[in-house]
Amino acid sequence: MRALDLQSQLDEITANTRDLVQPERLAATDAAIQDLFATGIEDRILQAGAQAPSFTLNDAVTGKLVRSDDLLALGRVVLKIFRGRWCPYCMTELEAWQALYPQARESGALLVALSPQTRRQNDFAAQQHRLTFPLLSDPGASVAEKFGVTYLLPKPMQDHYRSILVNIPFINSESSWRLPLPATFVIAQDRSILFSEAHADHRVRPDPQDVLTALQT
């Protein structure tokens, strides 16, 4: 999988969804995205130049605590914040990054991903998609909130996900229906953010080549 193919793959998921899903459900999703964008959430995420918060979270596979300060002692960190294994856009993106992982390592960087889903759900994701970088569980999206990317899923979208059997409170073991925007951060060893991108539209993701370029700065 080539890095430049990522957004086209995501667009293909969107096109297939529009062919298969009832128009009223698509309209609810599109409206929720527009409403989320209107809140100004994209302007509130931590930007390049800001200091990244420290965190300590459990690794899905090993169960061990992973500390961001320990990672940064080894090199720069590419941090991927994703919604969960139920999101095809997220898993397509993480598979793309799995293919790019050697390039990130050649740049002296580490790659980690975190989501609000439980450790068990993250473990399922790692095994199913053959991900070899750490997947960290972020209960209640508390770390994602520090990066400025959390929001409360509106009631129509809660109903929509229930209707397609995506039980987010069960998946996250938390009842609030809080989710993060899918987000990408490159963090320098002094905790300064070198790259920051997140979109209210979960169907849009940054070009991995832009992220890899940030690792060279």
CATH class equals Alpha Beta
Average pLDDT for all residues: 94
Strand order of the largest sheet: 2-1-5-4-3-8-9
Strand-residue proportion: 15-25%
Order of helices and strands: HHEEHEHEHEHEHHEEEH
Number of helices: 9
Low-confidence stretches: none
What is the straight-line distance between the termini?
Answer: 25 Å
Summarize the biggest pleated sheet.
7 strands, mixed
- Total beta strands: 9
Radius of gyration from CA coordinates: 16 Å
From the 3D coordinates, which CATH architecture would you assign?
3-Layer(aba) Sandwich
Task: Give structural notes.
This protein has a single domain (3-215), classed as Glutaredoxin. Helices cover 44% and strands 18% of the residues. The protein contains 9 helices and 9 strands. The strands form 2 sheets. The protein has a 7-stranded mixed β-sheet. The longest helix is centred in the middle third of the chain and has 19 residues, at 88-106. The model has no long low-confidence stretch (mean pLDDT 94).
